[in-house]
Amino acid sequence: HYEACGNACPDTCSEPSASSFCTLNCVPKCQCTSGYVLHDSQCVPIESCGCLYNGIQYELGEEFWEDENCHSRCKCDPSQGTVNCWKASCKANQKCTTVNGVHHCKGSAYTTCIGTGDPHYTTFDGRKYDFQGSCIYQMAGICSKDSGLTPFSVVVENNNRGNKVVSFTKVVTLEVYNMTLSLSQEHPRKIQVQKKILKDEEAKRKGRVWLTKGRVLYESATDV
């Protein structure tokens, strides 16, 4: 709601008491209703903020490694909004690494699958083939029931674009960490997060997914 003399230091998920310590003069601006705080430029219920731990905001239910040696695993308790930690370690074929200040257990080796052009695919095991279907297909995802793996799905939508002989990728959608990210022909070199196009062109971190202009960098803590 709008206030002619609003607090210049709005409460946020990362600083829920910012307004109480503000020394700036009031300004005309929109303010969140009592019980709500700012998060990603939107007013959200304060109980949905998740957990602030060691200066990092975690989503409700999110798990993370507390230390740089991956000896302590923590979780943001969705029922209480508090962080609970327990002793843990990486698997035998993994090592603990730190990327952008976030600790991960990563496998000693990794593989990549690629989809390009009209479309040409390279599978995780290096096999190459062309596929001209014009429907919606799952390109990659988790099929294991291992609870230590992070569920994710990469879905592609292909169309013919006036030529039934070949098809082209129309939309690529990644679902991971309760987020939906997509790249599409309709919005070239733009990234959509939860169906909203990113306004800024700077790199932006969303949980454990890094976004930058026209690219999605997915860093998995579980080597999926």
From TrEMBL:
Keywords: Disulfide bond, Glycoprotein
Entry-linked SUPFAM superfamilies: Serine protease inhibitors (SSF57567)
Highest taxon of the lineage: Eukaryota
Gene Ontology cellular component terms for the protein in this record: extracellular matrix; extracellular space
Pfam family, one: TILa
InterPro entries cross-referenced by the UniProt entry: Mucin_vWF_Thrombospondin_sf, Ser_inhib-like_sf, TIL_dom, TILa_dom, VWF_type-D
Domain VWFD: 111-224
UniProt keyword Transcription regulation present: no
Protein name: VWFD domain-containing protein
Organism of origin: Ophiophagus hannah
